[in-house]
Amino acid sequence: MSTHKIFAPGGANDSQQYTKGSLDESQLDPNPFTQFDIWFKHANEEKVHQPETVTLSTVELPSGRVSARMVYLKEMDERGFVIYSNWGTSRKASDISSTPQPYAALTFWWHELERQVRVEGPCERLSREESQVYFDTRIRGSRIGAWASQQSQVLRDRAELEQRVKDIEERFGGEGEGRIPVPEFWGGLRVKPEMVEFWQGRPSRLHDRFRYTRTQGEGGEWKIERLSP
User: Fold this and answer.
1) Known PROSITE patterns for this protein (predicted)?
2) CB within 10 Å: which end of the chain, N or C, has fewer?
3) Could you tell me if residue 215 is left (phi over 0), alpha (psi between -120 and 50 degrees) or otherwise beta?
């Protein structure tokens, strides 16, 4: 008798088929940033649920242990893809600080369109001044929370966290709307892609996949190749 807790969810005969689209190189912009912008706008137009949601994957050296978590994309331009987080105590912070040249991977999954985008490349911290610009757009509670949370560290109980929030509120003027500086340990991380893959689901798992790679390092031209599914 099988000991599997879960085996082939949905059953072999009920496997979902991806039928909502196809992708050909003729449909792709030569620049992956432009292509991502086209797909992202389409995702918003088609009411994809929070298309900015993305999996950020990092690795710890020398162990090689990989960790991943869901975050939000907040910025994208020709320099790369930017997310924001705690860089003092979080697991992602320790992963990135463990390697002389930190790398990261991003994975977007847009179920409603049966599309996936993968991004891989080196990453860099944004300056405090750059991070302050985004920090000022956050609601006050999120700004207070960034100061109060020692992300990923062990808490005795919820009361300990709530006391930290109270202390930070008092530090920055209670319920007032005064400007709150971005913490030194908090800010943006930019993933500068060396590879971007656009994936369109197709029937029988014979998906359309196209990979952009730099031909001459940062600032070079992009090469587009179709990949086997």
Assistant:
1) PYRIDOX_OXIDASE
2) N
3) alpha
* Closest among 58, 33, 52 to 212, alpha carbons compared: 33
CA distance 102 to 88: 15
Q: Contact at 8 Å (CB) between 178 and 186?
A: no
What ranges in the chain are assigned the alpha helix state H? 32-45, 91-97, 128-135, 140-148, 158-171
Q: Cα dist. 222→33, 45, 196, 210 in Å?
A: 11, 27, 10, 12
User: Residue 206 domain-assigned?
Assistant: yes
Q: Cα–Cα distance between 31 and 173 in angstroms, integer?
A: 47
Asked if 21 contacts 114 with a C-beta cutoff of 8 angstroms, the reply is yes
| Per-residue model confidence as pLDDT tens for the chain (229 residues) | 668 888 877 766 667 899 999 999 999 999 999 999 999 999 999 999 999 999 999 999 999 999 999 999 999 999 999 999 999 999 999 999 999 999 999 999 999 999 999 999 999 999 999 999 999 999 999 999 999 999 999 999 999 999 999 999 999 986 656 789 999 999 999 999 999 999 999 999 999 999 999 987 677 799 999 999 9
For tokens 């910025």, the residue is 75
Pick the catalytic residue: 65, 171, 179, 205?
A: 205
Indicate the number of domains in the chain. 1
In a domain, 31, yes or no: yes
The CATH number of the domain holding residue 42 is: 2.30.110.10
